[in-house]
């Protein structure tokens, strides 16, 4: 590690030491999040430490003068770091700013159709991410992200930022050495076809059909399910589940076993 990097780390460690965040603060911020309640204590402690580093490194701002309480900041940071708990915070280093709106916000996008005509599209969103940032979230949706219903806007948008680290938002993040990109593509495509078939046939599906909007949405929606409803996802698409375990270097089913018996 070079001198500047060591200096930055030293400064960050000093700042971390001076932050006074209690167990009660974490409980207030994350105590209703079912996933957090399943985490073994050792993982909760690591999540706390990484979330504080996240807050030191990123700027989190309220849109239109919205004041963000410490509780909200801890909640967003705690949810945001779960996907990179075993990867490292550097996986978020391509963006810097997180913007929080009170509720859903209107985003305007321009796109060019196959005839070269530009269109402007306005849509109400609960979250959005761009490869260089910002990550944009609706506070209303952050607040309601505590259930284990696989609806978690923070996990969803942060998954997009990981996906965008290689070749744009295409449904595949940069894979680790030893992971097979061909097998990833094959198994995710098969799961996509299966979901499309289930939706067409009115059968139950392991994830929300919003996943079929685009390959990038498929990866983001599956990430939500991976952390929040790992059992049904693994039962439906075991090969895809294994790829996600390999990528995130976690198996969320195991916490549930270890965490059983705890509140
Ligand atoms: Zn999305």
SSE topology string: HHHHEHEEEEEHHHHHHH
Give the distinct bound molecules: zinc ion
Count of distinct structural domains: 1
Given the C-alpha coordinates, what overall shape results?
A: globular
Beta content comes to 5-15%
The CATH topology is what?
Collagenase (Catalytic Domain)
Weakly predicted, low-confidence segments: none
By CATH reckoning, the class would read: Alpha Beta
Global Rg: 19 Å
Give helix % range: 40-55%
Structural class computed from helices and strand pairing: alpha/beta
Give a short account of the largest sheet: 4 strands, mixed
- What is the CA–CA distance across the termini? 41 Å
CATH homologous superfamily caption: Collagenase (Catalytic Domain)
The assigned CATH architecture is 3-Layer(aba) Sandwich
Which whole number gives the mean pLDDT?
A: 91
DSSP summary, beta strand count: 6
- Tally of individual helices: 12
Strand order within the widest sheet? 1-2-6-5
Overview of this protein structure:
With 263 residues, this protein is of the alpha/beta class. It has one domain: Collagenase (Catalytic Domain) (3-Layer(aba) Sandwich), CATH 3.40.390. The protein has helices spanning 3-18, 23-30, 34-38, 41-57, 70-81, 139-143, 153-163, 181-201, 215-228, 230-236, 238-248, 252-259, and strands at 59-62, 97-101, 105-112, 118-125, 127-129, 135-138. The strands form two sheets. A four-stranded mixed beta sheet has the order 1-2-6-5. It has a two-stranded antiparallel ribbon with strand order 3-4. Helix 2 crosses helix 5. The radius of gyration is 19 Å and the shape is globular. The termini are far apart. The mean pLDDT is 91. The site of zinc ion (ZN) has 4 residues, from helix 7 and helix 9. Residues 156, 160, 217, 220 line the site of zinc ion.
